């Protein structure tokens, strides 16, 4: 691991195969010392980059970001010039992650705030158990396609799937999409085959209110990857929302609770 | 005997040169060592093909001996089945950090030629080799055959991948196919025989995950004479491959359809969209080979003399990435483990669940790959 100062408050670290513990400690030390931008070169799968930092710092990653990139992220902005692996934005709270490539499985798991923009495809189980709370609305936008279990058990926030690189006849999303979804909203550019959708959701056409949200949310994505918002919006979107806020509420409930109206 | 399967965050890596060109062990060493974090130092191993070009016509037996004294017993069994052409201790290097964990066993290798008159009636040469492996593993206490194919070998033990790689001097070998594994044992003991790869004849398997159907699979292969002696679930997958691939001669895709079977709803869908033939085949395979289906979360690499095949469980509960660069195909648990040895591959992708990545040597056609080759 080589560290050098590029200019005032800007540092560069050549990572190689250094252990993530050493790297992340170094990043934290630099931030404490006032770094505003840290450039990581030759990253080979180092995990948990960006976690445990509350200061607003920009982290640029060249190479392949390791698992759980930006886990519990609480403010920093991370930009990956390359691909990311599994668990991008896991349980993220605030901040921004941009990936100029593809990302792996279980991205955005339990995410509760902040923005994630992925340029390419994502793997399986992306956006599972995403949640929101009052003013906290997480947004996860994918430029490419997604695998199975997209937004499974989703509880809040916004999942936007664009499929911009989709070839004719290719599915934009995999099977078990939105299974068990009970909160939040999904916008998918194109149609989702009914057989892929969970029983817990209903499909709608987007209305004016949705278009307003989309326009607003896509602004950041559009800027990050220089794709005009109008071009993205040139094709119709499908909106997926849950039928019930508690799809499994009755599953293990006692008959008395249901009869008395306590359990709906 | 402890018979439980393993749940883990293991790491795996595989490299194959489809042109059959030799690759130094250095690359697989670097690839698997970059994923050290996925193991806990309680098991690592390598499998290599093409490492014994001068002895390519003989079966190469790598045997692990808890005690050097049992070597004579192993030799006695081998002599019943084979003519031993050459036998030697597998050279190892001193790695002090290894000895803090366990006392390494002794590793022997034998190059053997089957005796025609040792075969039972109707038994093929391969069957006899399998029988000899089972006889040693089951019958001699403290001796385990860890590989038994031609021009290939397995090297494994209790340690981190770099420790085991240094111990066996993996960087000194050159092969056209390499598999490697780093282990995080949770449900079964971390012992030298329990490290991956698991092999039989020239099949080798490395596996990340847990085969929850182990009991069913084990009972099934035992009906065909296989004996599960290595205290872990991955072994059963190696025997299943041997049974389906070599003995039942199923085509490659059928083998994987049996092991990571499509869900019935998907099988029905084939019919809905008019793929009648696929529907029939899938239905037959699922029905006939129900006990060969592997359940639970896993990613597996499976190598044999003609190539490497990687595949996932049917809902992708373990990571698996593949890449191509020229004639070389890379597979690993993490993309970074590929990029560490090949910075800019032509193509990198995340295969879909249950969909095998088949990387055969250029001279092999998928339909020709059938055992024994005729």
Highlighted features:
heterodimer; A: 264 residues; alpha/beta; Pectate Lyase C-like; twelve-stranded mixed β-sheet; 15% helix; globular; B: 374 residues; seven-stranded antiparallel β-sheet; five-stranded antiparallel β-sheet; 11 helices; 28% helix; disordered N terminus; disordered C terminus
Offer a quick outline of the entry.
The complex is a heterodimer of chains A (264) and B (374). By secondary structure, chain A is of the alpha/beta class. Chain A has four helices and twelve strands, in the order ββαβββββββββααβα.
Explain what you see.
The complex is a heterodimer of chains A (264) and B (374). By secondary structure, chain A is an alpha/beta fold. Chain A has one domain: Glutamate synthase, alpha subunit, C-terminal domain (Pectate Lyase C-like). Chain A has four helices and twelve strands; from the N terminus they run ββαβββββββββααβα. A twelve-stranded mixed β-sheet of chain A has the order 1-2-3-4-5-6-7-8-9-10-12-11, sandwiched between helices. Chain A is globular. Chain B is α+β, with helices and mostly antiparallel strands and 374 residues long. Chain B has one domain (12-360): Glutamine Phosphoribosylpyrophosphate, subunit 1, domain 1 (4-Layer Sandwich), CATH 3.60.20.10. Chain B has eleven helices and 18 strands. Chain B has helices at residues 25-33, 71-81, 96-99, 125-139, 161-167, 214-222, 234-247, 252-259, 264-272, 276-288, 335-339; strands spanning 11-17, 23-24, 44-49, 59-65, 82-89, 106-114, 143-147, 152-157, 174-175, 177-182, 198-200, 203-209, 298-304, 307-312, 321-325, 328-332, 347-349, 357-360. In chain B, the strands form four sheets. Chain B has a seven-stranded antiparallel β-sheet. In chain B, strands 11-12-13-14-18 form a five-stranded antiparallel β-sheet, covered by helices on one side. Chain B has a four-stranded antiparallel β-sheet with strand order 5-6-4-7, covered by helices on one side. In chain B, strand 11 (198-200) and strand 12 (203-209) form a beta hairpin. In chain B, helix 2 runs antiparallel to helix 4, helix 6 (214-222) crosses helix 7 (234-247) and helix 9 packs antiparallel against helix 10 (276-288). Chain B is globular and about 65 Å long. The N and C termini of chain B lie far apart (40 Å). The model of chain B is unreliable at 1-8 and 370-374 (pLDDT under 50). Classes of the chains: A alpha/beta (264), B alpha+beta (374). Chain A binds chain B through residues 17, 20, 43-45, 47, 63-64, 66-67, 83, 85-86, 102, 104-105, 121, 123-124, 147-149, 174, 195, and chain B through 34-35, 37, 269, 315-316, 319, 321, 334-337, 339-340, 348, 350, 352-353.
């Amino acid at each position: 691991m080589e560290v050098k100062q590029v200019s005032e408050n800007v540092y560069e670290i050549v990572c190689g195969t250094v252990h993530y513990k050493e790297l992340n400690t170094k990043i934290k030390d630099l931030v404490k010392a006032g770094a505003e931008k840290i450039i990581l070169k030759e990253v080979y799968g180092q995990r948990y980059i960006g976690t445990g930092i509350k200061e607003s710092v920009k982290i640029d990653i060249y190479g392949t970001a390791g698992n759980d990139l930006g886990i519990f992220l609480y403010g920093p902005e991370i930009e990956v010039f390359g691909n990311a692996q599994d668990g991008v934005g896991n349980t993220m709270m605030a901040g921004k992650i941009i990936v100029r490539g593809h990302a792996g499985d279980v991205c955005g798991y339990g995410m509760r705030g902040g923005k994630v923009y992925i340029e390419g495809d994502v793997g399986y189980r992306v956006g599972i158990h995403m949640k929101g709370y009052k003013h906290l609305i997480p947004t996860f936008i994918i430029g490419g396609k997604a695998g199975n279990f997209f937004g499974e058990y989703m509880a809040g926030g916004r999942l936007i799937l664009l499929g911009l690189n989709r070839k004719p006849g290719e599915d934009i999303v995999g099977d078990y999409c939105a299974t068990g979804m009970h909160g939040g909203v999904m916008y998918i550019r194109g149609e989702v085959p009914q057989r892929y959708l969970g029983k817990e959701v209903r499909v709608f056409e987007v209305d004016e209110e949705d278009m307003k949200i989309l326009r607003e949310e896509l602004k950041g994505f559009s800027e990050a990857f220089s794709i005009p918002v109008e071009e993205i919006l040139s094709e119709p979107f499908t909106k997926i929302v849950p039928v019930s806020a508690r799809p499994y509420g009755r599953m293990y409930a006692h008959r008395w609770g249901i009869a008395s109206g306590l359990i709906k | 005997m402890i018979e439980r399967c393993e749940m883990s965050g293991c790491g795996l890596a595989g490299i194959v040169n489809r042109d059959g060109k030799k690759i130094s062990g250095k690359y697989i060493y670097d690839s698997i060592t970059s994923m050290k974090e996925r193991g806990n130092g309680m098991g690592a191993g390598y499998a290599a093909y093409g490492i014994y070009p001068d002895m390519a016509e003989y079966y190469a037996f790598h045997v692990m001996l808890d005690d050097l004294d049992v070597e004579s017993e192993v030799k006695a069994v081998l002599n019943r089945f084979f003519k031993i052409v050459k036998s030697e201790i597998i050279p190892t290097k001193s790695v002090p950090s290894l000895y803090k964990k366990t006392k390494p066993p002794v590793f022997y290798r034998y190059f053997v030629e089957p005796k025609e008159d040792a075969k039972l009636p109707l038994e093929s040469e391969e069957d006899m080799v399998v029988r000899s492996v089972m006889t040693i593993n089951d019958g001699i206490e403290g001796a385990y055959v860890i590989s038994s194919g031609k021009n290939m070998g397995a090297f494994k033990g209790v340690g981190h991948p770099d420790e085991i790689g240094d111990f066996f001097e993996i960087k000194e070998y050159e092969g056209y196919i390499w598999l490697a594994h780093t282990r995080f044992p949770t449900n079964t003991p971390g012992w030298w025989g329990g490290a991956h790869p698991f092999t039989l004849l020239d099949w080798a398997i490395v596996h990340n995950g847990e085969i929850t159907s182990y009991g069913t699979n084990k009972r099934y292969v035992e009906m065909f004479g296989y004996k599960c002696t290595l205290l872990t679930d991955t072994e059963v997958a190696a025997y299943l491959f041997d049974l389906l691939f070599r003995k039942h001669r199923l085509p490659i895709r059928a083998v994987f359809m049996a092991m990571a079977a499509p869900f019935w709803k998907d099988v029905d869908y084939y019919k809905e969209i008019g793929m009648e033939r696929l529907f029939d085949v899938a239905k037959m395979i699922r029905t006939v080979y129900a006990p060969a289906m592997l359940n639970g979360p896993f990613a597996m690499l499976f190598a044999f003399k003609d190539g490497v095949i990687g595949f996932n469980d049917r809902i992708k509960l373990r990571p698996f990435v593949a890449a191509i660069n020229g004639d070389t195909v890379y597979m690993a648990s993490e993309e970074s483990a590929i990029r560490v040895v090949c910075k800019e591959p032509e193509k990198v992708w995340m295969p879909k669940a249950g969909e095998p990545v088949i990387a055969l040597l250029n001279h092999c056609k998928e339909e020709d790959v059938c055992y024994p080759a005729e």
